[in-house]
Protein 1
Amino acid sequence: MAARSAPSCHLRLEWVYGYRGHQCRNNLYYTAAKEIVYFVAGVGVVYSPREHRQKFYRGHSDDIISLALHPDRVLVATGQVGKEPYICVWDSYTVQTVSVLKDVHTHGIACLAFDLDGQRLVSVGLDSKNAVCVWDWKRGKMLSMAPGHTDRIFDISWDLYQPNKLVSCGVKHIKFWSLCGNALTPKRGVFGKTGDLQTILCLACARDELTYSGALNGDIYVWKGINLIRTIQGAHTAGIFSMNACEEGFATGGRDGCIRLWDLTFKPITVIDLRETEQGYKGLSVRSVCWRGDHILVGTQDSEIFEIVVHERNKPFLIMQGHCEGELWALAVHPTKPLAVTGSDDRSVRIWSLVDHALIARCNMEEPIRCAAVNVDGIHLALGMKDGSFTVLRVRDMTEVVHIKDRKEAIHELKYSPDGTYLAVGCNDSSVDIYGVAQRYKKVGECVGSISFITHLDWSSDSRYLQTNDGNGKRLLFKMPGGKEVTSKEEMKGIHWASWTCVSGLEVNGIWPKYSDINDINSVDGNYVGQVLVTADDYGVVKLFRYPCLRKGAKFRKYIGHSAHVTNVRWSHDYQWVISIGGADHSVFQWKFVPERKLKDALHIAPQESLAESNSDDSDSDLSDVPELDSEIEQETQLTYHRQVYKEDLPQLKEQCKEKQKSAASKRRERAPGNSIRLHFIHGYRGYDCRSNLFYTQIGEIVYHVAAVGVIYNRQQNTQRFYLGHDDDILCLAIHPLKDYVATGQVGRDPSVHVWDTETIKPLSILKGYHQYGVCAVDFSADGKRLASVGIDDSHTVVLWDWKKGEKLSVARGSKDKIFVVKMNPYVPDKLITAGIKHMKFWRRAGGGLIGRKGYVGTLGRSDTMMCAVYGWTEEMAFSGTSTGDVCIWRDVFLVKTVKAHDGPVFSMHALEKGFVTGGKDGVVALWDDSFERCLKTYAIKRADLAPGSKGLLLEDNPSIRAISLGHGHILVGTKNGEILEVDKSGPITLLVQGHMEGEVWGLATHPYLPICATVSDDKTLRIWDLSPSHCMLAVRKLKKGGRCCCFSPDGKALAVGLNDGSFLMANADTLEDLVSFHHRKDIISDIQFSPGSGKYLAVASHDTFIDIYNVVSSKRVGICKGATSYITHIDWDTRGKLLQVNTGAKEQLFFEAPRGKKQAIPSVEVEKISWASWTSVLGLCCEGIWPIIGEVTDVTASCLTSDKMVLATGDDLGFVKLFRYPAKGKFGKFKKYVAHSTHVTNVRWTYDDSMLVTLGGADMSLMVWTNETESYRERRSCDSEESDIDSEEDGGYDSDVTRENEISYTIRALSTNIRPMFGVKPHLQQKEPSVDERPPVSRAPPQPEKLQSNNVGKKKRPIEDLVLELAFGYRGRDCRNNVHYLNDGDDIIYHTASVGILHNLATGTQSFYQEHNDDILCLTVNQHPKFINIVATGQVIQQICQGPELPAELDTTNGFL
């Protein structure tokens, strides 16, 4: 049976044996429900001692290392390690995520603490600066951040008696922090003479500014404010790891194994020495202690949890045990009982009861244990050791039967034969030894042949064969007991294996990825009865496959919980459970096997929500039984929106060209033209790769997008208005519930989402900073306050915004495959769905993160590609359209039903008050009832139904429908072919807007005396457009090939069209019927031009470097222009029709005589004197100025000169349309610039009377019509053009003072060395030897305190006198403005100099100072509001050293404090 799909059975985590005691402290607490919360591996555990039951929180993706309990004792915060670690705040009742805090720390989160009212959370990172961060955890927002210390911080706590105060401690330091605004300011604790400077491990805050801290030497240090006032010596005999404050007092736990209880004034109450109790042992070390009432919880270094009742303190109750530190590899199950055996590098072997969830036996061995096996009758237990020996114990009393050492290297695997006769022992030295059990384990055979260490062994059912795997992944078979290698394929075929634990072999091929040789699967175990296979790998994942799985890349279900390497995995004897063990987390996980069930039974094993992209997911590999993707969808998934140069790169590129800029600025350049253009109408709609991007506004206008423009179309007046805030392709559009605002997302390196008003066309909010490359989907919440967006980066990041504030609320990785749609829940603003390639995910906001749950398909179908999605009539109901034409109906995360809706993909879906409307690739619009049970009506989009008032022609029947919207009694439909149609509910269809279909558009020609133009495109159509008020497509003709150029004859009757196969045709300009066609070239025809006057000749330029000249009257080729070294790009005739000007791809400007085609060499000076009939050239002295400074990275693709020879319009590769004064002599001419096209503007043409400019966007397929506004005509309005890039001196320049100030660089000054040369060593540095490579100080921020050397401790130091600033002479005026103000009704003035804010009393001449800045103040302002009298803000220079936001200081001048 091929493993085409993931198995339908599941694993459910039932029990975790262990507790993380090593390298962690203070991670064990009682919750409000008297349950115990702690963590192990990557799982948060809530254990109920009363019911002996565990609940699990599995929102982490790596080892949890810190935990804090909320003051309500219900919520828990946990922090993990990892490259991008995050904090989860979760509910201990429901074990569901409440909030996720991410994107700040790196490496890991070492400590966590809630404040008194539980509103804020502080965290400490494991990065090099041990960053301290304060969070508003409910909103997932960081409030403040500061570098913590240069060395490790072990504990942090809020001062519960002083607001906004915190204390942190760690290696040789304690710091007292105050939070003011968003600034965290530390003060180091002063040890003074009272105690030695040493490492502080834990702390607790008390009343009256007192802080108690536990030191490494076992003393307790008592602090008042920041000063050490006394020490309680010998509180413990070794380091104090944990301190817990409660209503009764304090509890401390130390390395000496003692718990001490203290009253509220830290007087001792009692001591409990766990080492002396019945369960105690030498070396017991306490890592965590929690005191509640008469119960004390204790967590130890060796993974035990004790509960002590105070009045029976000598009888601690052991409630959890696990393996100690050291890797855990050995795992075996009892053949007849529900028991599991584990052995570890901690040298202990333990037997666990799978029914009672308890440790029932433990035995310590002499050596670390690496493997284990129980014989067939359950009497003997064999253990393989790291030193090459193995030991056999009796299971019932753990006494030794035999100890044998035949090898010097570690034993990796051993197994008893099914008949109990032999024991096979696999060693690191690549040999397998066979021992006879009955002969007191005498060696009876040896298997040799492996070239690497032995990793796995399996016996055949008849005990006659043994298969082995080695470290190279090689599988060998041996005959037993002698050990002869079996090579005969026939002999191999007949073998039936008693167990399957090998990772190599035909039956388990599917556990390996398709195209990978990685060796990261550590263990496998086959369940023959259930036909499933369980695997364990290096990534902390346990997977379930079908068995056998023969084809590589089989589907699977995966389960997380272990943090890193899962070293071994086994089924229990009756296949009820799976046991997995973690190498580094040394935990034992017990999973309940849930066989295949119907969906309703499976509700309790719904995929648990998880931040990590896993937990009962299907695998990532392709489903081999999914039908091929629909061609349209496949095409769309292959689109990439990456640009070689993004518009954001332009300032940087211009910066690199500064030298060019300076040389150009020194020359006088022609000013920009007086004319300007205004966007008037766009023919086009982006349907080929977008969906659901077409809506009615509040007042019945239509909003959609094309290229980089948001368009509002008035269908009554046939006019358009434009939102021009974007600078690259818009990929998605959503409308606000009130239908007055629109959100659009664009392509870009740091792409933005714009929210804008459809009435004023002004932006309301621009959101950026969290996506890469582009934004492909957006949606508003039902209340309109929030916005969800999806990026096109590799993870398809999903971001939730408060768009009015411009604030990111939550962010999460969406999917590695493309996401097509995001939809927010209309009933619950915190919920949303995303849908895409094999993807349907239900999200819930949790603080700064989003928790995603994959849609559960069950037996109803398979994971299909979803193209659209909407919510239904309740918050739980959702509907999605698939790539196969079905509509899926979801309740919560479960697929309830599928309905066949269309032939081919369902691209668009819209929810109505009482029903739905869908549109698909089949060109049909379908109306449905509210449960998708009945299709009420269908509308097919056909040419025959087109109403007379249509603005164009429908290209084909049943075009693929990409967008549907309802309103104002009509159905609005957007098609893949770039058409927008309005369907009346009674049937007739009106075409409103259309553009070219997918494929680049290059060919453009304007009519010689009518306001019409022709375009030809790679979509194989030739079209005629009316540029007058009707703005419609007049005619269209399908061509056999795509085309790149076209031209009207001078009389306007004929139209020449150049095609991509090297042929060209002449058509009747009215009917578009062929007049004549020629095919003389093999490559693209790139330009085509009639000679002026009677149009006797036609010049045809091709990509194979030739220009052919044809006599139009005789229809014969009369000349060929040769001599170009590259493809031809542009041709122009002179007014006499005797000379051709030619541009080539190699930037050559050539001239040929017509009609013979003889090449002419004409000096540049003479070229200017020639009168040209048209100018579309981009080369030559006359248009030298049109090339930008960054000409190396962008090409000017097209130009066109007005008939009065005054204004030259150009189009370039970056999507800019520019106007230059003609001739544009001299480099880098001045221009007016317009952005509307997204990328390459492929062609520009003025109409016959210069009243309009027509431009083509290559990739955006749009035809834009601009009106030409002359200087006299221009109204006083904000111009939507940008002036040119560089300004020269003649534009006014700068006053010399302003120039000097403009050139000041504060960063350089702040980083410079001393102003005057200094010699010698400053006194305070003289004691230590300055190192050679010591760098000069880099800023005037206070230097980090030196680490005290041990021999300085306790030495008497001279007291340092304090200096007090009395008077400061000076005022910063040379480079600052508006920085002197009156205060207190004119009695005082406030100003600044150096790093000091000065309040100067005019009557007395005295000064008071604000001295919290540590570098030059550059600006000052006074709050004018009557509520905030005397509040001043000042801003300084600083070298950025921390990731947090830097805000100016605010000071109150009445007392000089912040």
Note: The first strand starts at residue 10 and ends at 17.
Protein 2
Amino acid sequence: MYQDWVSLSIAVHDREAETRSVLSRLPAPAGQTVVAAVVRGIASTLGIASAPQPSPLSAAAEVDWCMEVICHGLSLPLSEHDTIRDCVNIYCEWLTALLPAPKLCVPDAVQQRPNHYSRRMLNHLQNLFVPRSDQSIDTINRQAVLCHRVLRTVQSLSNEPARLEPDTWSTLLLFLLTVNDSLLSPPTVKDDIGDQMYERVLGVLFEVWIQACCKCFPPPPLWKTFRESCLHWRHRPGLVDQWSAVMTALTARLLESMYGPGFPALAVSEEDAVPASMAPEAVAQTWYRMLHTIGNPVEISSAAAVSSTQQFLQYAISSEAVIEPHQHPCLSQLPAIFHRAVRAISLLVNAFLGVTEPPLNESTSSSGPPVRKESSVLSPSPGSGSGVTPPAQRRHTRSMGSGSAGKGSRASIIGGLGSRTASASSQSGPAPSQSTAGGVGGSSEHPAPPPPPSVTQPLQAHSPAAAAAAAPAPAAAAAAAAVSSAAAAAAGGSADSGAVSLAPGRAKCNSVLHLFGAWLFEAALVGTSAHSSAKHTQGQSKRASAAYLDSRKSSTSSQTPEPADLPATVTADKFERGRAEALGALCRIFCAKKTSEEILPSYLASFYLVLHEVLSDREGTEVSQNLAAILLNCSSLLQLDLDGVNCLLPALTDAVHHVIASPRPITVRDSDVSGAALRRASVRLLVSMLALPLHFQGLPVREPVPGDRPPVSFLQLRPRLVGLLVTGLQQEADPVNCQMMLGGLLMCVQDSALYEESCHGLHDISTAAAAAGSQHVTSAAAPDSISASSDVSFPEDPTDEQLAIDSARGLYVRAIYLVCHRLMTSWKAELNTSLAALELLAGLARVRLQHQDVVECKRAVKWLCDYICHQCSRPPPAHSKDLHSTIVAAFRCVSVWLLEHPYLLDDRDTLATLLEVVELGISGTKSQAKYGEPPVMKHDKQLKPASMRVKEAAEALLYVLMEQVDYFPCASGVWSLSSHLTEASLLHHCHPGGGPQHRKAALAQFKYFVTESLLIALLEQPLGNDEDPQPTVTCLMRGPSLRTAWMLQLRHLPRHKSGARLTSTSNPGRPLPMSEPATRHNITPAFFPDAVDRIPSCKADRSIPTLESLIQDQKSASEHNQMLHLMEQQMSRESVARRAVASRTASAGLNMDTECVPPPPSQEFQTARLFLSHFQLLDDWPTAGQDKQQPSFRPGHQLVALDAQAPGFAADLDALDATTFRTCDTVHVYYVRSGQTNAASVLANGASLSSLDGPFSEFLLSLGWPVDVSIHPGWTGRPETSFNTAQHDSAGRSDRAPPDPPSYDGSRWALYWADALTEVAFVVPSSSVGPAAGPAAAPEAERKRRGGPEPPVLVVWLESFDDHLTFPSAELAGDASNANYIIFIHALQNKLYRIHLQGPSGKMTFASPLVEGLVVSRRSLGHLVRQTAINVCTRRRLENENSHPPHVRRKQKIQEMLMKYQMNMSQPEFYTMLFSADGSQC
């Protein structure tokens, strides 16, 4: 970089001319005497011990003579401490002449020429910092105190507004360089002056240097000298620490000037910040120069390179303990220093990428740098000096190989000097872009990387978008654990997201690699054979793919071979922490690739070779830090559309297998990275690989470096990936990892089933692999590969053939067994894992296989019932909301299995188990707790359910069991579980010719009753299409589950035997007698026989007194007479009646021979009374001791009549009909074009679906069916247009087709999907109908009543994946944006789809099967998205304590109507109302 400039190293190392006094030629005692006598008098005027006085020196010659004396005094031994102290005090006070207000003791000559004398004083003060021969602790401490005094004075001169000329600034900087060189260049000796002062002198050097860059930019010779001097100090840990802190502060200002305030800012303390007065151009120039101050950081890993200085050689010559320079004990710190240097570069990489998550475990690192306490590295200047930039002739310096700059533009120092190479070994470590440009410059296939852009422009072409993000950790803690930053990259954000946040306007990968790539590639290969070959091939022409092997031609490491007798403390394996940091930084750079970004092929090839080298080097059972760094930072590697990344698939599979399949706890060698975090990153990498084999099938995988194993195809890797997934599920204990693998397992089963279905006769994937000529996977996999079927003991059916683990059926069977087994043994106490397992089982129930395994389905239902019984039987302290949530979810899962597999009810044992579980959920106990015990009857049991939520879930299962299993979809279709018939439509059938009736008039013709939770509407008018005059009643039943319509007729015979039409028109005639009738005898009835009077009486007959003997008083006699009178009247009336009957009979000719004729059929019936009576609804009424008025409603006791004419009855009835048995969820689907960040542009896409991506339209149709919301009887996403029963003609609906182009914004058309438990409306909001019209805009009471989602789930289709950072969820969702669950979908170039999830933090994590980082195929995308949205809404309802199941809401609504509209009447009034024709109350 500075090869055309002269170095000032000679002035630094040869201080004789400037620091030697004439008194040094005199004998030592004489010189000491003169110095002591002179400085004592001058020091007395300084005002330290007494009041300050004017200096006795006036002439310049006097001052010059005294300065010669003081110069010699500063070189005296520390035994003359008082004299040296006076000399230091004199110079420190005289240096205030540079300040605007010099002190009184400063001589006039010095005040007149402050810069001239200050330069001489600074040169003299160098003597103070020269190490003395006496290295006792007391001497070192005394010298350190005096040195601190001088350094504080120098700091004040640079910070405060001073009158420093450019030459004075150069002298000041050269003074600090000389001081640092004298203290830091020698090898470190414990507790010497250099060991005590290195942090302080380095801190002052960097601080003053930054101040000089702000006020008077140092010339190139000083920069070159600074760099050469730093190469001699690399064995000091403080150098890298101070360099890292300064680079962090400069980077913070650089990012602010390049990207604006919206870019994530680095957290830099106020005392460490760059002065605010520093110009942006000066910041850029300083940043690049300071970056290369310490040379190539990779050389720190070479003990021979670091020790190849004159000081180390002199020490080795003079010391008996050290034979070779590289064997000095102080070099044992090189591994830690190397790690800190690479760690600093890693932090700079994070800064340019906009990483907003701080590294983990940073405070616990054992190798972290000490926190600076005494002095700040950078202190802002209170003054407002102007920034002095380099001269114009240096700004326009051009690179010899990078081409010329455009006209009118300024070439930056980065672009102008980036491709130069140094000519001397002392100039090692030029810009990392040199080797990149030089290594590929001769290739015609790929152009050479362009020079880095100007520092006055951003590192990317487009301007950064504003993004609010938290600041990363400060640079003061820049040396955390080796893989701590890697762990942060994998564990940042939410627990299940597993990725750090990157700034939308971050730098391009090529730009970052131009700056740091060569260093990182070289550092990642330290100690490997590839690194050795890189040194051997220096200067030779190589392919672009070998660019990572290029080092600097001037690199010390390339010219100084590593000796064979290295100490054990600096061997290659000790630098593993630094290698891990470099690997982590490289992985983060490449994983920060944007959607439309192109990375140079040379960088990609280098990256793949480095990863393959590290992934192939695995020894032992422990995980190396290098492997951990790759796994933690490369979890999204296969989701980025990197060209040729699939070549790493076998190596990545081996690495993931090494972590996941380990039966022992995972530990990272010499690191505190948790095994759970490492396994989580491995699982994320695994789930991104699961869809690749079926997608690429027999395509071979070509690895970067051919190995010993034969090449494999994608399809050959599938058994191993699936087996690894199953093995990991069997062993995993971390809840988050289990949930991710459960989602991946369900995706595999679903994708395999759809794939086999599309193959038409392909029974399993292994058959296809064999047909393609593939070998068995164990021969192609790594030696340590395992078979999942051998690790997991699956049940075997002797009648079935052995199933391949990667076939749909094989996966189906193993998934059921494994998940149910772990659910019962390990996961039952963990909420989120249990919910994920139950969601997987529910998803398996919906999978359609060509050959369904009935035994496994029965076994799954039995396991689920056992799980419910086990959870309900846990002791009371274990019962909690979470436990009951799992039970509720298990009941729902059982419902799904029964609905999808109704044949399970044909099995007697399964049906008995189901009913026992329902009984347990409702009552809290089983009727027969153990086999053989007598059952407990229902009326003898006490209702003590585990909770009301469990009871309601069991009731819902019972409703499904009795009403929906093997009946869904019903005659109404999937659109509705209830009948489409309403009061108005029934009356229309009664009067076909009449017009539509008013709603209230229609209700008036029905009689409404409530019994328990059943609302009954009875219509006594026969339907118009039935001419049979039988007693007919039409009944509308509204219960907790659905609305049904029934027409009932009272018949004494079945229809096929009754002959209804003949009975009313013809007389069948009297049947003929079988024999002659017997003789009829006319006998007059009597109470006593005729001979009773002839029987003689006895005493017993007289024991009963006569009636007359009992009449004792007048009252009794009166009552007796009245009774006799009444009897006489009755007898006379009966006599008259008998005569009248005899007269009518005689006149009509009726006698015993007259034929009997049946009366004509009755045409009017009170069918409502008949219905209620026959169904025993009129039996239970208050007895004589109870109130005559109907009391308030008591369930199970009586029938209550409702007043249908009451105001509000019709509206409440409509609200009840709108409360369905199914849950109603809404999903808003958005399409985001590349670069769209505002809601208006996103909504505009919904109005023009025809112009969008073709796969997006296909995806929409895979979510549901298009429905016309104007006639749709189900949920439409809007409460005001849902559950329309006015028009229910399915034939008319089928004739309607969606418009072309389609528009599913909910105004006319929407997408709809439903099963017996859930209704989902998929709406694509547009600019004409925004998202505010959805359920989130409905009133709170309305949303609670309808049970709709609040807010809806968002599905966002991204053209550019980076747009998920700027998606306007707040504008689209309003106040509920913080509660939104968002599923981002990004189409990769290989036709697979990347999934990213975003949601609020809570107790329940995101639902499965879609998990963060999952890559899914096109055929299964719609199924998985829909299922995930349903599961998200289900989990949200489980978490909300105020959310009730739909059947409970219907019950509550019926109860509300009962309390509002019941008719309080007595029993006679009730029957009078029932018998009256109009139903009115008498």
Note: The longest strand covers residues 1223-1232.
